[in-house]
Every structure is written in C-alpha cells, then in structure tokens.
Amino acid sequence: MPPVPATRVSVEEEFRRRFGREPEVVVRAPGRVNLIGEHTDYNDGFVMPMAIDRWVTIAARPRTDGRVTLHSIDLNDEGSFTLGGQGEPSREWIDYVRGVAWALSDGGKALTGFDGVVSGNVPVGAGLSSSAAFEMAATRVFAAVSGFEWEAVDMARAGQRAENLWMGVNCGIMDQLISAGGQAGHAILIDCRSLDMRPVPLSRDVAVVVLDTTTRRQLVGSEYNDRRDQCAAAAAACGASSLRDVSQSQLDAGREAMGEVAFRRARHVLSENDRTLRAAEAMRAGDARLLGQMMNESHQSLRDDYEVSTRALDAMAESARSAPGCHGARLTGAGFGGCVVALVDRHRLHGFAPQAVATFTATMHLVPAVYPCEAVGGAEVVGPV
Question: What is the pTM of this model?
C-alpha cells in the first residue's frame, strides 16, 4: 500500500536526519476527488475530477549508482531497488515507485537514482487516489533528478501503465492525469479517449466536502477488474471496441446477447457519460441545483446498475443529503468502501458537517472523517528549501 496519512515530521527534516545532507528537490502530488464520471474512464468516457489539497510529498537527492532508496515516514519502512533491475512485483509499497521506474524506462526515459523520504496525508483506500498521488510524486522526482521535461499526459500514461501492468489494477487514466495536471480553482472535464482536458470553474458559493466512511477496500483482487471485463463484454456484444461507441438503442438491441449483468453495467456507463457532460454545463452556468441532481443520480446508478456501493456508502450519501445546504452527494472512487463527495452551500458548511456526521453515526455506529476540499494544481516541485 502507498504511504498513509501522518506527516509527524517533515520530509525535509527526516531527509537531513537520515542522510546528513540537504535534499536537492522537494516535490508533491495531490490526491483527487471525482465530482462525477465514475467507471467511465476505462470505457473511453468522460470524467470530472479535481485535484485536492492533500498530497504525497517526497524530498530527494540524486545518486550516481542507479539505486533508488526511499524511506516512508508514515510506514516507518524503507524500500530500495536498482534501476533496470527492478525484478518482479512484490506488492510492497515501494512497488509503486518500481513500477513507475519501469514504465518510464520502457518509454525511453534515461533515469537517475535517488535517495528520498516520503510522507502523505491522502487517506489510503478512501477513493481519493493515494496510489496515483504517490506514483505522480515519484514520477516528478524522476523528472527532476533525471533532467527530462514534465509533460502531464505522458507522465500520467506512465503512472497508469505502472498501475495496470506492474500493480495489476486495470484502472483508467483519470487518477494519474488529474494528479499530474490539475488546476487550482477548477475541476477538469477529461475526455478519456482523446485525453482533452477542459477546466471547469468551481463557484465560490459552494464547497466540495469529502465524507470518509472509514470503511476500506482493496482494488487488487477485488471486483473492480470484473466490472471492466463486463463492460468489455457488453461493448463486444454491440460490435464495438468500447462503450464510448455504443448508443442506447444499440445497447438495448444487444441486451439478450450480453446478459442482464453486463447490460446494467453498460447502462450505467452510458448514462454516466451523459450526466458528466450535463454536470459540466451546470458548473459553467453556476447551477448548483442541477449539479447536485446529477450527483444524486450518479450514486443511484452506481448503486443499482454498477453495484459498487455499500450500506455504509448509501448511508453516508443519504446523511449528507439530509443535512442543511447540501445540493447532492454520491460515492466517489471505485466504490466497495471509502468516501462520499457532497456539494454544499459554502455559507452553510458549518451546520452541514455536524448533522451529516451525527446522522451517519446513529445509523452505522461509525464516526466518519470530514474533509472540506479546495481545488489545487497538479504535481509540482516545491523545493529545494
């Protein structure tokens, strides 16, 4: 697993203590919350995430022997490997860095090793893309110490390849792309086929709030890959390579051939693409009511057609909607546990959180964490210090 929240001591301070020198570069990459557009990315569809003000941060200094050594403050553990000799995946946290190194090298980048210290405050397993933040932070370090140019789309592709082929999670590119190329004050409407990224402004009248159920899931070995296979089967039954190319009438015509389960998975994807585009229009128009409606409908579709919600996620979404100032709420991330994202009137934020928490706790006997989020920029160099 990638590093977990903590930052009890700064990465710079720990670097000095462990290595007796100053780091030459400090980078950070953000997590993300997806406002709408779930399980559409690997179907060449539309998503609308925003990078959030929670990061994975790495302090590093290049070394000349092709070795990478990284200490995690949060795990109190150290991992290392030699570039070009990464071996086989071991499912340890350092594999995220090994996978990125493999993907970059395979893509023609000449890499320099480094000593580093990492820490993060993106909750792990919550659907806020802690793994993508870790991958993009590591990629930003490699770019800095190796001297190649940072290009968000190319770097995101490397991170996705690491996740798909090294870590074994058949994710789309959304998480890595928003972590690499987010924009302050905006969500980003991403066409996952063309990788066109269109910033969509967030109204200052509303706040985005993440409510963490504290329930967790693991994507490796979970039903996530099954959903992807079901979508591919539905597209094939319609004679298409991707659900992006399937119309509702084609889907209806292929219903019997693909079977009911694959049909419902595909119905979610088609309807979610439409909702995402409508949500982007609502944001541009400052229509919080319509945006909230799209978020609510998204949750219903994820619950009933895609079947990735849980009792805790449903209860959290309902608790949020019942609290003052909430326009809409939906599960965010792959599902099976994690977080709900809510759209709330900013001036009612202080009343919203206590009521949503109290209602959820009374129902589930769990105490959720609440993270009001601001939209931030993508992976960046923030030092030397």
Answer: 0.90
